[in-house]
Amino acid sequence: MHRTIIVGSPRSDGRCAHLAQEIFDACIDECPEDGVSLVSVSSIDVSGCMGCYGCKQTLSKDSASVPAFPEKGDPLEPQERIRKSDSQRHVCVIADDMPEVRKHLDAADELIVVSPVYFASAPAQLKALLDRLQPYYWSGVRRQTAKRPLTLHVVGEGGDPHGIEPLIGCIRSAFSVAGFKLCEVLDWRGKIDEQGNVLEDAQEYEI
Description:
The chain has 207 residues and is of the alpha/beta class. It has helices at 15-30, 80-84, 98-107, 124-131, 134-139, 165-177, and strands spanning 2-7, 35-40, 110-116, 148-155, 180-187, 203-205.
């Protein structure tokens, strides 16, 4: 069992970072035999999608441009359903950290996303990551019936009259093409102070 935590805040020491670290520590304490990895947009270089459709092309199996999957036994060994797909043959033309992010996604039995709310939706840095999931769309991973579970933790001060539905929609749509299904949304708005201390338990948001 491997869990991947995506932290969608550009702030490296904000509310989201503190909550994600608590979740990470809880995964280790409660499931010491399982793997867990944490990917924060504040510490990676991921550019926005250019809409060039380069990833629509399917590289030949024997092409030197096809990146290799991590070997068997590697902590980031991909899911069998990913290994059997042609996702590795749909490669983005942008050279940045997104291939490493994909390794963490490919290995995940369960995905956890911790995100702040920026004008009812996702921060630009997280949105860039979401848009760069487009290669999975062309690979057909999105059509897999047995999708992996995704939990979204929404963090913020609260008070935005426009709510969080746009954020939920972005997360649901983008990660669906990578083979995940949004199963639960936990609302932490107004429940974590500026120092990252949890003041109240999250409320489950109906989706």
